[in-house]
Design a protein that fits this description.
The protein is of the alpha/beta class and 641 residues long. The protein has helices spanning 2-5, 18-23, 42-52, 67-83, 96-108, 129-134, 146-156, 159-162, 169-186, 202-220, 233-244, 252-265, 299-308, 325-351, 364-372, 379-392, 407-437, 445-455, 476-495, 514-529, 628-633; strands at residues 32-36, 59-63, 86-90, 116-121, 136-140, 276-281, 287-292, 506-507, 536-543, 552-556, 559-561, 564-566, 569-571, 577-579, 582-589, 600-606, 614-621, 637-639. Strands 2-3-4-1-5 form a five-stranded parallel sheet, with helices on both faces. Helix 7 crosses helix 9 (169-186), helix 16 runs antiparallel to helix 17 (407-437) and helix 17 (407-437) packs across helix 19 (476-495). The two termini are 43 Å apart.
Length: 641
């Protein structure tokens, strides 16, 4: 493709020429379907085009998704078709049933030559296929890479607005463009860049520009120049962090990431000649700038620098992330491809499905012949798996004895109770399936469902579903290995004397409610020390030694992301994740806690690396060579499984 169309073919960032598409290539009875992805807002482009083409005041915009919107849209289309106006219907994917009637209505009307219908939507399979075929479809995707994003932003900016006095305004616009590009680009690396794909869009950038204009105009009072120190940095930072971009964030840890970028970029230092837009640290911990701000003072200067001098950056380190984050993105893409192949394979198997398990066996003489004559292709494989699992899984879940007044005992008894129920079901299903494979019994509905799930669909049977991480996405073999390890872990804990709980390493991820166990440890320490819960502070020490400290609980299997721990202190690492040796949790009184708060960073602890389930937070010391914001930008966290 590159040899035919040229290398620049993949770097095109210009918006589609909507004006030509609307005027020349679209007939009045042909809808324009504008498909958007997160980070894009096609409705604003339509409203801007209406002003450009003299349709300002003649374009009716309606949000779909409710019955009231349906009736308003019907009326607006009928009126606009007669008068030659435009109709913009937003988020039509929320009204798939109404879209079917829209297709027929457009065919029946005889519209004015200036009549146009614009519809914005997200990708949704429920949108009628006939409507898509009859429409002119334009897809709006956010640009890939910082340079592409910066080019698109500056191409859409009016030069007169950027070059307005005071002269310092243009640099603020450039800093905002860089910030917005970084925010959008980090969405590609979720949940590392952000814990989830927040709905940042071009509307955020426009609102931020309006906020900057308002504060700068008040400060400058018509002057041609303003000293950088006199600009309202606190107001600009607060607007971006708490209201505009920050208004879309729903957790404090992503809020801290955004705040780290905003405070770095929007400060008087950004007017220094060698100010670093992005940077990292070398092996000695010294800061190394990756990209320095250009020495420009107007629209043409910044635009020329972006197009001609800014490199096409693709490394995640320019976004404040570890270098190996790309590997995580590639892994996620590979898993998605494998899921698609799995669905296609399952569809083929449905066609060739053997109905052997549905047959009735007339008598013992015909049993072997009737079963073996129609065995599905997975029969031997699953039979071998079931036999292997039968030998590996513990025969029972051990019981725990102890005083009910002990919070740790109560927490563990709940764990054991939940595991016992699932273990009984899994153990019984394995015995039943094994008897069917050995031709000693006939499969009932429950056993048939288990066998089909494992053999035909390569999924964990629904009856085995527990709150363990990965139970919905893992295949049966790794799930069973994890389940057996969990049972062994809980049995080891159950056999431990109550007074020694936590003195030997515990696999925290092996518990169904690890946050409840940590909370129970705090309650038990408070009961033992006879002090209020609020007076206890958690101190975490990472050590290669499993030797117990004073009144500590030792956990293993924790993984750190975005950093590494050297001598119980956070430091930089290019690796996305690393498993920690032993984590010692100590609940200390305020008087016993002697660490310097200024050298501690608060990081979240999640259940899995998808970072969907938050458990609790801890504070860890970090190397004084680094700034706390470095770990916030990298999304440093711990996972227990």
């Amino acid at each position: 493709v590159a040899s035919t169309f040229g290398k620049e073919f993949f770097n095109q960032v210009e918006d589609p020429h909507l004006d030509q598409l609307v005027r020349v290539e679209t007939r009045p009875g042909t809808p324009l379907l504008l498909v958007t992805f997160p980070g894009c807002d096609a409705s604003v482009r339509v409203m801007n085009l209406a002003r450009t083409m003299g349709m300002d005041g003649k374009c009716t915009a309606l949000a779909m998704g409710s019955p009231e919107g349906f009736s308003q849209a019907d009326t607006a289309i009928n009126v606009a078709a007669k008068r030659g106006h435009w109709v913009l219907l937003k988020n039509v994917h929320l009204a798939p049933s109404w879209l079917s009637s829209l297709e027929k209505r457009i065919h029946r009307i005889e519209p004015n030559q200036n009549f146009r219908v614009f519809m914005t939507m997200e990708v949704n399979p429920r949108v009628p296929a006939n409507l898509v075929r009859m429409s002119n479809v334009v897809i709006f995707e956010p640009p890939r890479g910082l340079k592409s994003s910066m080019v698109r932003i500056f191409n859409a900016l009016p030069q007169q607005r950027v070059d307005r006095a005071p002269a310092e305004r243009s640099r603020l616009y450039f800093l905002l463009a860089w910030l917005h590009s970084v925010i959008l680009e980090r969405l590609r690396y979720a949940p590392v860049g952000w814990t989830k794909t927040f709905e940042f869009s071009e509307a955020d950038q426009r609102c931020a520009m309006d906020a900057i204009d308002e504060w700068v105009d008040k400060t400058s009072a018509g002057r041609l120049n303003v000293r950088p120190e006199m600009l309202p940095w606190d107001a600009i930072q607060t607007s971006l962090e708490k209201i505009i971009h920050g208004g879309r964030i729903d957790n404090p840890y992503d809020q801290a990431r955004l705040s780290a970028f905003v405070k770095h970029l929007f400060s008087p230092r950004s007017y220094d000649k060698d100010f670093a837009l992005a940077g990292g640290h070398d092996e000695k911990g010294e800061f190394v700038p990756f990209v320095k701000i250009p020495d420009c003072h107007n629209y043409n200067g910044f635009h020329s620098w972006i197009v001609n001098e800014l490199k096409d950056i693709s490394s995640p380190k320019f976004l404040g992330l570890p270098e190996d984050t790309n590997l995580l993105l590639q892994k996620e893409q590979t898993l998605n491809i494998l899921k698609v192949f799995g669905k296609l394979q399952a569809a083929d198997k449905d066609v060739e499905r053997a109905n052997i398990l549905k047959r009735k066996i007339p008598d013992s003489h015909k049993r072997r012949h009737s079963i073996t004559s129609g065995q599905p292709p997975w029969w031997k494989r699953v039979s071998t798996l079931v036999g292997r699992w039968m030998k590996s899984i513990p025969s029972k879940v051990e019981r725990l004895s102890g005083e009910a007044s002990n919070a740790l005992v109560r927490a563990l008894q709940r764990e054991i109770s939940m595991y016992s129920k699932v273990h009984q079901r899994v153990f019984f299903d394995l015995i039943s399936a094994n008897e069917v494979f050995e031709l000693k019994a006939i499969a009932n509905n429950a056993t048939r469902a288990v066998m089909n799930a494992i053999g035909e669909h390569d999924t964990v049977p629904k009856a085995w579903n527990i709150r363990s991480p990965g139970s919905e996405t893992m295949s049966p073999s790794p799930w069973m290995q994890d389940f057996i390890r969990r049972i062994q872990c809980i049995n080891t804990i159950a056999k431990t004397p109550i007074q020694n709980l936590g003195r030997k390493p515990i696999w925290l991820g092996g518990l169904l409610s690890p946050e409840a166990f940590v909370a129970a440890s705090r309650q038990e320490v408070a009961r033992t020390k006879k002090c209020p819960l609020d007076s206890l502070i958690l101190k975490v020490t990472i050590s290669n030694s499993a030797a117990p400290l004073t009144d500590d609980f030792i956990f293993q299997g924790l993984t750190i992301h975005g950093a590494e721990c050297h001598q119980s202190m956070l430091t930089m690492s290019d690796k996305v994740m690393q498993e920690l040796p032993h984590s010692h949790f100590q609940w200390l009184n305020l008087s016993e806690f002697k660490e310097d708060d200024s050298n501690l960073v608060t990081i979240p602890v999640y259940l899995t690396q998808n970072r969907r389930q938050f458990l609790f937070e801890i504070r860890l010391p970090y190397d004084s060579k680094y700034n706390e914001s470095v770990f916030r930008k990298r999304g440093t966290c711990l996972t227990v499984w």
